[in-house]
Write a structure and sequence with these properties.
CATH superfamily of the largest domain: RRM (RNA recognition motif) domain
Number of domains: 2
Strand order of the largest sheet: 2-3-1-6
Helix content: 25-40%
Radius of gyration: 21 Å
Shape: globular
Order of helices and strands: HEHEEHEEEHHH
CATH class of the largest domain: Alpha Beta
Distance between the termini: 39 Å
CATH topology of the largest domain: Alpha-Beta Plaits
Bound molecules: zinc ion
Strand content: 15-25%
Number of strands: 6
Protein name: Pre-C2HC domain-containing protein
Length: 245
C-alpha cells in the first residue's frame, strides 16, 4: 500500500503533488473524429508505442447566460512516460484508427494553474486530494454537481468567501497563489544557482532543507505554504465550513 492509499484508508485529510520525475510528457494529437472513445485511441497508440500511458479528450467551455456548456472537440492530449522520445513518436505514429494524425507540442501556458475540483484549492489536482469536499460554487461540503445554489443567489468562494465561484481568476486567493508560485519558482532558481556554485567550490553538501520548523507543519498545509510563511488561504478544516451559510 502506498502512502496515499494509506492516508485515504485511515481517513486523513491531505493533499499532495505528483513528483516531477513521475509527471508524464504530454503531446497534442489532432486529426481524429471527436466521437472516437479515448480508450480505443489509447489501445491503438499503445499497440504502436509502449511508452504511451493515457489519452484525454479536450473540450471547449462556452457560457450561455448562467449555464456553462462543455463541448468535446477532436483534439486529444496524449500522456507519455518521461523517457519517451517525442521525435520518435511523431515519426512513427502517423495513422491512428485509420485517420492520418497530426502531432503538436502541448502548450503549457494554456493551462497555467491547477485547480482542485474536490476541495476548490489551487495548486494540486483532485487525483492528489483527500481534503474534505468544498463546492466551487457555494463553498459547502458537497461536489459542484450536487450544488443546489439557485440562480438568484450569488455564489460564495470557498477560499475568500466573497461572492464569486472559487475558479474566478480575480479572486484574491487565486492572485495570492499566483504570487506565491512566482516567489517559489524564483527561490528555487536561486537555490539551484547557489547549489551549482557551491558544488564547484565547497565540499559536497546534501541537498536537504534544514530550516523547516516541524511545529509549523500542520495538516492540510503544504511545504510551499510553510516556507512562504503566508496564510492567505483558509486552510484548516475548522475554517473550511465555518462560513455557515
Ligand atoms: Zn484538493
Ligand atoms: Zn454548492
Ligand atoms: Zn475567492
Amino acid at each position: 500500500m502506498n502512502i496515499k492509499s494509506y492516508l485515504t484508508s485511515i481517513n486523513i485529510d491531505y493533499y499532495t503533488y505528483t513528483p516531477k520525475n513521475e509527471l508524464c510528457k504530454k503531446m497534442v494529437l489532432k486529426g481524429l473524429d471527436k466521437n472516437l472513445p479515448c480508450k480505443e485511441i489509447l489501445d491503438d497508440l499503445q499497440m504502436q508505442h509502449n511508452l504511451i500511458v493515457d489519452v484525454k479528450q479536450m473540450q471547449t467551455t462556452k457560457r450561455d447566460n448562467e449555464t456553462t456548456i462543455k463541448e468535446k472537440i477532436g483534439v486529444f492530449v496524449v500522456y507519455l512516460k518521461r523517457e519517451a522520445n517525442i521525435d520518435d513518436i511523431i515519426n512513427n505514429i502517423k495513422i491512428v484508427l485509420h485517420h492520418v494524425v497530426i502531432w503538436e507540442k502541448f502548450n503549457k501556458r494554456a493551462n497555467p494553474a491547477t485547480f482542485c475540483g474536490r476541495c476548490s484549492r489551487w495548486g494540486h489536482g483532485a487525483s492528489n486530494c483527500n481534503m474534505p469536499l468544498r463546492c466551487l460554487k457555494c463553498g459547502k461540503s458537497h461536489s459542484p454537481e450536487k450544488c443546489d445554489l439557485d440562480k438568484q443567489r450569488p455564489p460564495t468562494c470557498a477560499n475568500c468567501k466573497l461572492n464569486h465561484p472559487a475558479t474566478y481568476r480575480e479572486c484574491p486567493a487565486f492572485k495570492s497563489y499566483i504570487e506565491r508560485r512566482k516567489d517559489l519558482i524564483e527561490k528555487n532558481r536561486q537555490k539551484q544557482r547557489q547549489l551549482r556554485t557551491s558544488h564547484s567550490e565547497a565540499p559536497r553538501q546534501r541537498n536537504v532543507p534544514t530550516s523547516i520548523d516541524t511545529a509549523k507543519i500542520r495538516q492540510g498545509i503544504s511545504y510551499a505554504d510553510v516556507i512562504t510563511n503566508e496564510q492567505n488561504f483558509p486552510i484548516s478544516n475548522t475554517q473550511d465550513t465555518s462560513n455557515g451559510n
